[in-house]
Amino acid sequence: MSHSFDEISQQLKRRHRKSARLKWISMGALGLAGLFLVLFFADMLSKGLPAFQQAYINAEVRYTEEASRDGRQAFDQDLIPLISRTVVRVIPLQLRNNPEMIGTSEQRWMLATSEVDQYLKGHRNRLSDEEKAEIDERVAAGQVDLRFNKTFFGSGDSKIAENAGILSAVVGTIMTMIVTLLISFPIGVMTAIYLEEFAPDNRFTQLIEININNLAAIPSILFGLLGLAIFINFFGVPRSSPLAGGMTLALMTLPVIIIATRTALRSVPDSIRHAAFGVGCSRWQVVRDHVLPLAMPGIMTGSIIGLAQAMGETAPLIIVGMVAFIPDVSASFTQAATVMPAQIFTWSGEPEQAFVEKTAGGILVLLSVLISLNAFAVVLRKKFERRW
Amino acid sequence: MNSQAPVMNQQHAPDVGQPYTRNEQACHDLSIRVRDLNLWYGKSQALKGLNIDLFQKNVTALIGPSGCGKSTFLRCLNRMNDLIPSVHIEGLVEMDGQDVNAGKMDEVALRRRVGMVFQKPNPFPKSIYENIAYAPRMHDLVSRKADQDELVEKALRDAGLWNEVKDKLQEPGTSLSGGQQQRLCIARAIAVQPDVILMDEPTSALDPISTATIEDLMDKLKEQFTIVTVTHNMQQAARVADYTAFFHLGEIIEYNDTKVMFSTPAQKKTEDYISGRYG
């Protein structure tokens, strides 16, 4: 029995309505996800960007005999509450090291306290009305200004808000990531090569495979406990050190790299392997000369993404002690260090208002590093993508 | 049957008086001897008691319907079946007086003497030059750069590809056309100077003109190499092969001089197949 077009369209209308409805629902979901992302970034940017600027005061510094004993003597008394303690504190030291400066004076830009900074940025602060008036006056005279915050990028953590910076955490992160990469990349890639290219397919290898997949799904804090128990307590690796943190994160990154590498190896067509076996390659030559070069872009992308994941990890590092207060950039892999997410965590717990923007600023730095890493992974994949 | 004697048309020994038209003088140097070869994929038997002798500097074609075991048999000759974990092999495949399946035979050494060309052209994703030079360098056949250049040129000339690629040796092998890629794969196989070249349906992915080129090439190459080729194309077997073996359900039904086989097949099954009644 045949149907006319009218009958068919009648029935089709209902189906078209249904798919249109589904389309709108999914677009709504996408829009909502996008909205959350925009809100998150807007919030972070509005809170974090001010952290890249800091209040500075331009005033006369008098390097007198008294100032070499008490730094406060170098300034006008009404300025003392406005200038950062760190500036005042170093003056006697500076004069002791350079006695020829005594008796001179100069006009220079100095770090203001975080209260001044917060006042200028319109945030909550603890300044008195007289101090506020004083600042307003100096702002009008061009002697107080917001300038690029060199301290934030150029120094380590500090309990004095205006003096706190992210450098020691950045260096700590780099050192930790070096350890993580050096351990997890070779071990992960070789494990994957064995499982994919050499191992027989039997119960034992299947068991290993299941366990590796499970390992990738384990809460990261457990890796921290493992790192604490094995690396620190058993092997005596120094606590809080990039070595301990890096080894712990390597455990966490290992399954990610193994899985990524196996996927990359599997995507190399068998025809290439057959061709190589056909000209008399040994198994290792097949892998080294033919399969691995083709799988490399995939392996690299997977590893970079695994590394980026490890870089943002906080929980296991808290357990191995990398949330310590680290004012100085650590010089070796066995010295105490901190990492960016741990630094952000520490700052978020500080009561002072000025640390709120430090926290957001730290997040911005971490995010931009992560985004650039991921972008690098994408570029790498695009660049080495090959047809065969 | 005396297992030492060359096996030729097991059921019906060829009439001695019958003229071997074009390979009378070349035909009887033994290259590979196969006796009672059985092969199982897991529990299913794919090859059933094969006996066949492959002759040097001849083209032997393996024909038969899909799934008859001809490709499986071909892969027994350079032990490519080793790569499939569930495969179990019994019987003798003898080359140069040695059992290729014996424990002391290194499959790498075997593949050095028995090269292979695959159904789909599979050049390495490297330059044309590297495609040829890689294997000889790996086998230490060449050490000096000049020798290597010479060998690459010779292999490409033998494969009839030199004039087409001599100006773009550094371009990727995958940039060539399908037929050129297949000749590149042949050049790659002959560059290590093997005794035998196995070809697994080498022209099935190619257009008719490229196919004709490869067929001409096979005719030339048999002056230097023993060629065993699997083909689905009966005309191709008739054109290029000196000997033809007809496979059916894992058995060799008939093996004979190609001309004899195609003019007066001894078996009913062979006749049905080559006349296109099934396949």
From TrEMBL, chain B:
User: What processes in GO biological process is this protein linked to?
Assistant: phosphate ion transmembrane transport
> Which GO cellular component terms are attached?
membrane
Can you give the residue ranges of the ABC transporter domain?
Answer: 32-274
Q: One Pfam family from the UniProt entry?
A: ABC_tran
Q: CDD domains under this entry? A: ABC_PstB_phosphate_transporter (cd03260)
Any one Gene Ontology molecular-function term assigned to this protein's record: ATP hydrolysis activity
Q: Which SMART domains match?
A: AAA (SM00382)
List the residue ranges of the region (Disordered): 1-21
> tRNA-binding: is it a keyword of this entry?
no
Keyword set for this entry?
A: ATP-binding, Nucleotide-binding, Phosphate transport, Transport
Q: Which domain of life is it from?
A: Bacteria
For bias type Polar residues, the affected ranges are 1-12
PANTHER family in the record, alphabetically?
ABC TRANSPORTER I FAMILY MEMBER 17
The protein in question is named Phosphate ABC transporter ATP-binding protein
Organism this protein belongs to: Vreelandella aquamarina
> Gene name?
pstB_1
